[in-house]
Amino acid sequence: MPDETSNPVLGHVSVASQPTDEIPAGGEFLEPPEEGENPQTTDVTSEGTEAVEGYEHPKGPLSELFTPPTIQFPDIGEASFGPPPPMAESVHGPDDRIQITSTSVYPWRVHCSLLITAADGSRWIGTGWFIGPRTVMTAGHVVYIKNSGVPGRDCWATRVDVMPGRNGAQLPFGSVTSSNLRSVTGWTAWGDQNYDYGAILLPTDLGSRTGWFGFGVYSDADLLGSTLNVAGYPGDKPAGTLWYHWNRAASVNSRKVYYDIDTMGGQSGSSVYRIMSGGRYGAAIHAYGGATTNSGTRVSSPVANNMLAWKA
Asked: What pTM, to 2 d.p., does this model score?
């Protein structure tokens, strides 16, 4: 592996599954969200969480015809890390995640259930979230399988079916398929978990209907003082159902954000987002778990530059 200390942005060099002439942008910024058509946006609380009726956190403050699978495929993380993953996503203490069924309204419809087909024909599940009309953000290991040890599997996914706002068998915005994928050399060449992020570029502007989240680069102090939110499609729940949880940030470093927010396999690629002045802003891309905290790839300046370049 190259000496990343001599060039810390080397691992963030953008790579694509298809030819591209994109040039990464520079500079720190706060990219705004967009609520899409007839959003019927849900309320938020003073603590910076989604106001889900009847739920109180006990831990602290268009497209092609497609029939969603009724069986639950394995978590995409297992494709790269093996079953079970060495850092399995986990629920800490009581499972107090809440199911979201109003998935056709903003912000829930921004979250996408992903069905990933690998080069060897195996199928897996993951999660993504819109950051623009044609761009779905996710984890790097969702779009590019690395170090699986299975012949013919290690490379870009050959197909990703994207289902915004899925609620089991219900697809309020249909499904769209793409093989136009993005990640960075830190993941595709090195398999370094600090660079585990990627994106799916769609052939339609479906995100104009669903809306999308903003994203921003935040200081350590800002993140540590924040409530973080995660919604996604976990593999331990009924196939294609959306689940939500939140908590304070636990710790941060230059490339990751850690949080005691309940997740399970299948939620790789979920947005870890803040709510500010009613707007939703991604602060990390959920990717891993641990015994006491789960973690996501932090939206640092190099990550945000790539997100802006990939936004379409």
From this structure: 0.87
